[in-house]
Amino acid sequence: VEGNFFGTIPGSKAAVLQMKKQAKGIIVNILSVSALTGRALSSGYCASKFGAMGFTKSIRMELADDNITIVGVYPGGMKTEIFKAKPPADYENYMEPSYVAAKILENLTAEQIDEEQIIALPKY
Questions:
Q1: Is residue 115 exposed (0-12), middle (13-18) or buried (19+ Cβ within 10 Å)?
Q2: Is 57 one of the catalytic residues?
Q3: Helix orientation angle between 43-62 and 8-22, rounded to the nearest 10 degrees
Q4: Is it the case that residue 124 has pLDDT exceeding 70?
Q5: 43-58 pLDDT, tens per residue?
Q6: Catalytic-role residue among 21, 24, 45, 79
Q7: Which residues contact residue 69 at a Cβ distance below 8 angstroms, ignoring those fewer than 6 apart?
Q8: What's the predicted TM-score (pTM) here?
Q9: Residues 6 or more apart from 114 whose CB is under 8 A from it?
Q10: For residue 61, what are the contacts with CB-CB under 8 A and spacing of at least 6?
Q11: What is the predicted pLDDT for the residue at 121?
Q12: Dihedral of CA 84/88/90/96: which sign?
């Protein structure tokens, strides 16, 4: 949980220092749909993602004139190692990390980048 928030700040700060030197750049902060709403039994996780979202939106405003784009990515449930010991009941419906990565890349190469990218599996 600490890494969700406290990892985002120094990573972004290091990137901003380099991007200011080169006068451009894109920072992608991986957040979660849990940053958009609370969830029972996930208060610490949601709070850390809320914090990371607030940080992401704030530095976006601070860097608006520096040609640095800040993207907040909000994926839904992903199949990751964190669930290895005890997967949720609906784990089979979670997204593969490769699907999320492809969606992020699609956004970053679009003519107009979506700075608030919500990623969920399509409903059929």
A1: middle
A2: no
A3: 20
A4: no
A5: 999 999 999 999 999 9
A6: 45
A7: 25, 26, 27, 113, 115
A8: 0.90
A9: 71, 107
A10: none
A11: 77
A12: negative
Task: Grade residue 123 by pLDDT with cuts at 50, 70 and 90.
Answer: low
Which two structure tokens, joined as six digits, stand for 91? 């784990």
With tokens 């699609």, the residue in question is 106
Give residue 18's identity as a one-letter amino acid code.
Answer: Q
Checking 75-79 for CB contacts under 8 A at 24+ apart, the result is 75/30, 75/32, 75/33, 75/100, 75/119, 75/120, 76/33, 76/119, 76/120, 76/121
Annotated active-site residue in 13, 20, 21, 49 = 49
pLDDT digits (tens, 9 = 90+) for 70-117: 999 999 999 988 888 888 888 999 999 999 999 999 999 999 999 999
Question: Would you say residue 67 has pLDDT above 60?
Answer: yes
**Helix residue ranges per DSSP H, 27-77:** 43-62
Distance CA 69, CA 63 (A): 8
Instruction: Say whether 99 is catalytic.
Output: no
φ/ψ of residue 89, rounded to 5:
-60, -35
